[in-house]
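note to self: dont lose this again. the chain is below, predicted strucutre after it. 233 aa total, dont forget to put it in the shared folder this time
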Amino acid sequence: MTEHIVSSYDDDLKEISDGVISMGGEVLGALNNIETLLKNNDHELAQKIIKNDLIINDLGQSVENKVFNILASRQPMAIDLRIVFSAVKISLYLERCGDMCKGISNRVLKGDLNEAQSPETISLLVNMCSMVHSNLRIVMEDYSKKECENSVKVWKSDSEIDSLYSEILMDILNSIKTNPDATDALVPLLFIARYLERVGDQATNVAEETYFVVTGEDLEGLEKTEVENETTF
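---
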């Protein structure tokens, strides 16, 4: 990012980027807690994640306010305009991630993960959460450095998460078929898998915006990595 004659303009742009980065840090912390929550069925931690969503929302509102102020007072152009508009979009993606973490926590609070009697499925969910966390961490690091090489790799590999999601769904559906009495306990796991898959989607959205900020181009022309035998639900 080039420096401007008016140093306060650079400060304003930095505040916007720093706000997005702070949001990313809160979401990554929530995903870390989700992984622990799934491992330990910790209802107290679930309540903490739900309360933390308010912090993520407040940070998002702050970013939006700063963007409106800079648009009104500075009339940014070129890369500056890409920075401010992408900040709004990325903050929205991160806010949705926070909502998904909150949704997972609510699902856990409404039941007992142990009742599903499906440790294999929960282990797969933990792995999925770890993958999603890794992808989001990578793209947020790129965003903070105004780089995009690793974000492109994340964007191309999104189908790996989709493939794991399909595997988890098949595992749950098979468990329901073999043990219909456990259906009520297994269904929440379907929602948790879906929430994690959607967080993965948001990570790729952040990757797209990061690429746009750095290059001024869209990622649509690149091909994603294909995963054989992928099932779509």
